[in-house]
Amino acid sequence: MATLDKPSEYKVIGTSPLRHDGVDKVTGRAAYGADIRLPGMLYGAVLRSPHAHARIISMDTSEAEKLHGVHAVITAKDFPDLESRIVELGEGLVNRKYQSNNILARDKVLYFGHAVAAVAATSLHIAKEALDLIRVEYEALDPVMDVRKAMEAGSPILLDDLRTDEFGKKGETPTNIAGHYKDACGDIEKGFKEAKFIVEREFVTKMVHQGYIEPQNATAQYNPDGQVAIWCSTQGAFGVREQVAEILEIPISNIRVIPMEIGGGFGGKIGVYLEPLAALLSRKSGYRPVKLTMDRSEVLAATGPTSGSYIKVKMGADANGKITAAEALLIYEAGAYPGSPVGAGMGVIFAPYRIENGVIEGYDVVVNKPRTAAYRAPGGTNAAFAAETVMDELAEKLGMDPIEFRLLNGAQEGDRRVDGSAYKRIGYLETLEAAKESAHYKTPLSGPHTGRGVASGFWFNYGGKSSASVSVNKDGTVSLLEGSVDIGGTRTSLAMQLAETLGIPAEDVRPVVADTDSIGYTEGTYGSRTTFATGWAVYETARDLIEKLKERAAILWEVEKDKVTFESGVFSSGDKTLTFKELAEKLDETGGPVVASAAVQPKGYGPGFATHIVDVEVDPETGKVQILRYTAVQDVGKAIYPVYVESQIQGGVAQGIGWALNEEYLYDEQGRLLNTSLLDYRMPVALDLPMIDTILVEVANPGHPYGVRGVGEVPIVPPPAAIANAIYRAIGVRMTELPMSPARVVEALIHKP
Amino acid sequence: MPSKTHVTATINGEEVEFLCEPHQSLLEVLRETLGLMGAKEGCNNGNCGSCNVILEGRLVNSCLVLAVEIQGKSVTTIEGIATPEGLHPLQQKFIEHAALQCGYCTPGFIVAAKALLDQNPNPSEHEVREWLAGNLCRCTGYDRIVKAVLDAADS
Amino acid sequence: MTKTMPTIFIPTPLREMTGGKASVVVSASSVREAIQSLEAEFPGIRDRLCEGNHIRPNISVFVDGQVSHLKMREKLSEKSEVHFVIAISGG
Description:
- Chain B has helices at about 25-35, 90-95, 105-120, 125-130, 145-155, and strands at about 5-10, 15-20, 50-55, 60, 75.
- With about 160 residues, chain B is of the alpha+beta class.
- In chain B, strands 2-1-5-3-4 form a five-stranded mixed β-sheet, with helices on both faces.
- Chain C is α+β, with helices and mostly antiparallel strands and about 90 residues long.
- Chain C has a single domain (about 5-85), classed as Ubiquitin-like (UB roll) (Roll), CATH 3.10.20.30.
- Chain C is globular and about 40 Å long.
- The N and C termini of chain C lie far apart (about 45 Å).
- Chains A and B meet through helix 1 and helix 18 of A and helix 2, helix 3, helix 4 and helix 5 of B.
């Protein structure tokens, strides 16, 4: 499909209509998962492990079952005992046995907060009382909390059946190393020989949480005929359906998932935790509906987070500033079960640059922490923190401006990545040029202990499967059914693409997010895919609708269909014309209602690049870092709904700032999570941040009819590196560990050479 | 001894009676007993502000107030912010400025911002940020929320 | 009859089987044929890429820079480039 590269002719795309669900969301009427109430509904609660690593010797639920008001108690014995098998469950690939064991521990608990039993009762208070009556006997085992220790021979083993996978070759001995990956190009030794300057550093980052404000929740109604309905907060209703079907071994056709409004996800609401529990509790309690909601401590201890990591980067440049070699080792915490985003981190780490001689090696390692989930550009932020800090140090050694150094080495169309693939049209250099020309970069920064940092970032983006369906109303409005959960304005970004294609105002489209029985298969809202891929589905649907409406106009005008043309919302044949709305009014005289639908799996998704500039002030006494000014430049392909594109960028930056300065999981020596509240897990508040300026660069993606690239993920990639580079300019120390909390900054200043 | 306490209060201008257990929070009673689902639970310990309501003119986290404490008192929730004529200016400005993404924290922010503007109709950016520091938003980076509140104050 | 000669990029861990070669030009008009050709030249390599008659579930196939949904069945042209990479998911 050729790109409709006529931006000036767009009537709807690029404008800022009010979002369709705005009033519901500012009046408190929007119904989120926990807002559902069903007649006779029971309330559930989950018992969780106090140990980070222990064998379950025995469980006795009899006292809990006797408590007045308790209707069901379940343990892993109520779950099918699944064999190991790798399956695609909406969240990418998982071993269904591990996923089942993560939802309810069977033989071993592998992290503090690991679920071991669940109760349904007439009130939440009774359910929690019942948890205290469940007796679990544990044999505590030594916890493994550090990836490098987990890799050592003799380290306690988490999963007896785990063997290292090396691109299709399985290791032979039990291990905590789930995967070992490697990409290489050119001749790394030759590359370092050609270098005049070489920088090598080690970096450590800690586990952080997605931090969505709405805790996980699920409500299920199981019926005696085997049908189950599930209301929940999820990024993808179809993914929930597949996971529940696989874990409980019930047919997909028996499950209907109704996605409620979702209070943030960022990758953390793709995999299921509560849905299978709610379904089983409903079945076991005599088919009463059961609602489960997590409290915040459960969210922090047992959902999300993303990997902490150890990363080593070595880069060399010649006297002219050309990068001659780049080498990286990335070791990522998978949490209790395999599946860290180390592969993505490897793909991000040198992505912005032309690397002729490169080696990137990665390890996916299990430790006694919660099984990690995707978090906005998963794996990317850790990697960019390391590489972009080294890039900054190289620029300094070369005496070059950090943007000029990146411009000299920046990747463009045709350049090959370390993994061998070649870029199509990308907009990295454009983000650097825009950053260089920005008001921010041109304004000198002065004052004691202040500094300016720059860093770039990359994200792959994704396509995936999407469906859409439209029907034309008599008044010329259009109802749009789609399966993409709306986390941040996508009802409107999709309605706008439909409106643009049909030549009608965005306000004339009524977008509805449908359940799994009401719309074709649609993957979740992740991978920065919704405006791109569901946008594709909407576009195809509109093209189909136009063809059908041409037939109706042909009937009205008594001409052949091929004599009818359509442009800018007007059907015409000779001197006869009808607007979309006028034709809609005449549908009943030409054959009745008109609907159209499309299902797509577009392949042409394009990666996104960003360059960020930040000014900081560091208090050398307390180590507190204040963000003075922030500008994020990003190639967005085409901004369909610019205010929400900017908002995605601002939100990603804010999360990146939290990751950079404050957020981390704190464990004691026994592996117990110490900061299980939002007071102690410190996310940025309004007072911590300045306004976040954005510059949208639009290098159209040739793989989308309107040039869309994903925009949601890449903005979280550069912030920690940009801030570390700014701190260096402010106080002269290189920060190599996240978060760069006041204590770590003071520590670094004490050891400043 | 009855296990429940009878409470009479004024909620969003209307007199309301309900029975509650002594340990139940105002948030739980608003949502589970009275069906007012606009106040959200994000943390249940006063750190996120998603359950903000105005109690006797003061901004509170309804998760930290016991329901029995509102006997004879007046409470405004997000459901009571709009008027029969239409949206409150803050609600309108939140939509216009795209000051929400997922919308989960939005009721809390709007209630908190109303409490601010009720006592300080002309706040500075810093005052807005300081006042809203008790409300967590993970989607927007606060930029558009602060702008929406400042704009609502101007209008 | 002209033969289609696409370029297959060898994943780094498998280069121990190709004598260090990073890419190989093979005669093949589909990914399945390409893997057959590779196997003929470098015995054992097929098992690293495939499980039974399918590409391993954790490996994505990219043809000319675009993800292939047809995988083994994907047609290749003269200038095609094929990459096998570990699957990546987004948030």
